[in-house]
Amino acid sequence: MKLAFIGDVHGDLERLAACVQSAAAAGAGTAIQLGDLGFREDLLGPGRPWPRFPIPVLAVDGNHEDHLFLAWAHASGLAAQWARHGLLHQPRGSLARLAGRSVLFLGGALHADRPQEEDNGIADAVIDAALATCAVRPPDLIISHSCPAGIGIGMRGSPAMAMQAAQHITAAGYDGGPADDAGEAGLARLWRNLPRKPALWAFGHFHHAHEATVGGTRFLALPEGDPAEAPVLWQA
What we know:
Elements: E1 2-6, H1 13-25, E2 28-33, H2 41-44, E3 57-59, H3 67-76, H4 78-84, E4 87-89, E5 94-98, E6 101-106, H5 124-136, E7 141-144, H6 162-170, H7 185-193, E8 200-203, E9 210-214, E10 217-221, E11 232-235
Parallel strand pairs: 1-2, 2-3, 3-4, 6-7, 7-8, 8-10
Antiparallel strand pairs: 1-11, 5-6, 9-10
């Protein structure tokens, strides 16, 4: 089965639906959305006209979500209704089996443009739980919103946001990694302690395409989702 990866759409559900349609037309059996989808009540609350997708869409949460609403959606059963429409939110640290491959999902990221909130970053407890899971079933593919910091991937934030990132990450006491190899310290800890490195690690968050191979793993950053662009596929 082919998997298609879709970058940030920031609440534009019509754009997401068009990206999924393009992925299905290209032969993908499942689409994976890399965070900042737009999990908010005004978009995905009860009674909203949710899109229906031709193939399942598995999504992690990004930093630009309403995380309180997302938690309520799972507790209330609303997330189960999304799943019946083909949209499945994958909680942080969850593991899925797709076409015989093990896939680990890790949402969340530090804000670069505003003060940090309670739930946007990745908690140490989530990384600990993910490592325990990976010790039993090492993932073939990791999906996250951001990427590990300081391991050689070479991600750079937007130059226009450098001053904001310095204020809201570094000056606020958070570790966003080197300016030329940015990401999440928690994901770097996960990477260093994985019992077996995955074949592929896909992520969004930075809004531009980038690719690097580190330790035998292909790291793939996707720009914002664009249905006019050919979908990025991976043979699972």
